[in-house]
Amino acid sequence: MTTIDYSVWDHIEVSDDEDDTHPNIDTPSLFRWRHQARVERQEAFQKQGEELEKSLAESKKKLTEAQKKVRELEGATTDEAKADLAKAQAEEKQARKEERSWEKKVDEYRREEKKQPWNVDTLCKEGFSKSVVNVLPELKDQTEEEKEEKHKTFVEKNEKQIKHFGMLRRWDDSQKYLSDNSHLVCEETANYLVIMCIDLEVEEKHSLMEQVAHQTIVMQFILELAKSLKVDPRGCFRQFFSKIKTADQQYQDAFNDELESFKERVRGRAKIRIEKAMKEYEEEEKQKRLGPGGVDPVEVYETLPVEMQKCFDEKDIQLLQDAISKMDPTEAKYHMKRCIDSGLWVPNSRVDLGVDDDDKEDDDKDDEPKYEELKKETAGEEKEEKLL
Q1: Per the record, where are the segments of Acidic residues compositional bias (predicted)?
Q2: What is the Cα–Cα distance from 379 to 194, expressed in whole angstroms?
Q3: Are 260 and 312 members of one domain?
Q4: What is the CATH number of the domain that holds 156?
């Protein structure tokens, strides 16, 4: 049968409060004095060891210097050099003797240290101590091109997951999804959700927009919390959900106010985008309508006299000739030239529309043809198309 050796416990200095004291003695004060005296003895003993170690190190250094000096003087031929060599060898011998003396004293100290009784201050020693703080590293400033490329790459890899997060409704579902996909907790996700909200509003999917807007504010609140704590957002999103689910009314109101403000900003941005798209569409349609002279037929039609507009509406050439004959020749020439440039009239033959002979000669000089037929698509029809 194996016996257990308990001798290792023979040199333990038991706790002060286990000793019996006289009733007339202030026990707490006695324990404090005992403990203080023991600590002072330990400090003095440790200081003695540090001084011995320091003296040993100095003796080693002195011996090394003496040995170096001896090596430099070896092989001396002159009497003076030989005398210096003998002196250096004597110093080396003395330094070696001192080193052995200090080594002996250090060994005695270490043996004495092992005999010291254990106590509450020396029984346990800290094996290691390590603290890890999840601090957000300082990122270097990125250029706009680098940010755009980073956003594009992130969205290409995670677009489906971001859209799924945007459609979640419950706090617990959002927290669990971010726990499983913590890489989504970043600025790129928030930016994509903002764009997604605007797209949905432009498409008039208002309910979906409001849902995604809620998740957008969730992500933005997480990022703001991380910024205030100076930690990585992936390490604090659980704190946000714990706070929002148990938040007081003031915090909840702040979240709701920010959500409503964000929705209004999305609606305003969507309106601007729609107006811009309409202007671009109208400009494209206008470019398609331009006649051979680069003039918009709709604008020309709207500036014509009422009598001429009636002629175009009824497609009556005779009526147009009568209207022109009644007008001032200069004014008639101006309007008819704009009709050609806009394509309302297609010049084909020299049909006299009632302009005076002098004006006709001027027209011949300018090589301006007269008009035979109306353009197939009248200005009135094009005006209606524009309004639609």
Answers
A1: 354-366
A2: 43
A3: no
A4: 1.20.58.610
Beta strands in the chain (DSSP E): 345-347, 371-374
Residue 312 and residue 272 share a domain: no
- The pTM is what? 0.46
pLDDT of residue 291: 64
Cβ pair 150, 197 in contact under 8 A: no
d(CA 226, CA 240) in angstroms, rounded, equals 9
Residue 337, burial from CB neighbour count under 10 angstroms (0-12, 13-18, 19+): middle
Q: What is the CA radius of gyration of the chain?
A: 50
DSSP 12: B
Element (H, E) at 15: none
Distances 5 to 2, 8, 113 between C-alpha atoms, Å? 10, 7, 22
CB of 148 closer than 8 Å to CB of 155:
no
Number of structural domains (the chain) is 3
Between 34-38, 109-113, 195-199, the lowest mean confidence (pLDDT) is in 34-38
Q: Is residue 369 part of a domain?
A: yes
Confidence of residue 374 (pLDDT cuts 50, 70, 90): very low
DSSP state of 204: T
State residue 349's pLDDT score.
43
In a shared domain, residues 274 and 335: no
Residue type, 224: E
Residue 109 within a domain: yes
Whether 164 and 213 share a structural domain: yes
Q: What totals of helices (H) and strands (E) does the chain contain, helices first?
A: 14, 2
Domain boundaries, position 345? 297-387
- If you average pLDDT over every residue of the chain, what do you get? 77
Same domain? For 222 and 340 the reply is no
**Residue that is last in its domain, among 257, 281, 305:** 281
- pLDDT tens-digit map of 225-269: 888 888 888 888 888 888 888 867 787 888 889 999 999 999 999
pLDDT of residue 1: 52
